[in-house]
Amino acid sequence: MGYLVLITGLIQAAVGVALLMSWARHARGQDAGLIVTHVVAMLGFFVPWTLFIATREPLWAWVGFVVLVAFIGFGDTEVVRRTSRDRGVARPRLPDYWRSMVAVCAGRYGRALQFHTLFSAAVFFPALYVAIAATVGG
């Protein structure tokens, strides 16, 4: 199952790179801090996850999962800012998160972002399962 998380993570990263390239072409550096932090951290997820696969040490699975939990929010924040700007909202609040996710999941911001948003669950939940199973079954 650890390999499944690795494979889904790599698929997610590939789509993320496509989104990054599109952002670099069109966004003119807008929200660069959020984007770069999200990209670097998400790629950083692969280091502890690979160590987990190699060692079967549950700590590495948890470190990888914590990276996901800590830094997925940077990507979410960028999406909320973008969709809120498009709606004329200067200071997004919690209800704007849900409006943003509905807009993205409906495909209003392109298929790549829609896939990246929905497919993140295919990395997140299996990673959590693997970390728990490695700890309990370890």
Question: Could you explain how this protein is built, in words?
Answer:
It is a single chain. The protein is about 85% helix and about 0% strand. The protein has about 140 residues and is mainly alpha-helical. The protein is elongated. This is Glycosyl transferase.
Summary of the model, kept short:
By secondary structure, this protein is mainly α.
Protein topology:
Layout: H1 2-26, H2 32-44, H3 46-55, H4 58-86, H5 94-105, H6 111-137
- Content of β-strand: under 5%
Report the order of strands and helices: HHHHHH
Q: Total strand count, please?
A: 0
What's the shape?
Answer: elongated
The biggest sheet amounts to: none
Please tell me how large the radius of gyration is: 16 Å
The proportion of residues forming helix, as a percent range, comes to: over 70%
Q: What distance separates the N and C termini? A: 14 Å
Structural class: mainly alpha
Count of DSSP-assigned helices? 6
The low-confidence runs, each spanning 5 or more residues with pLDDT under 50, are none
Mean pLDDT over all positions: 91
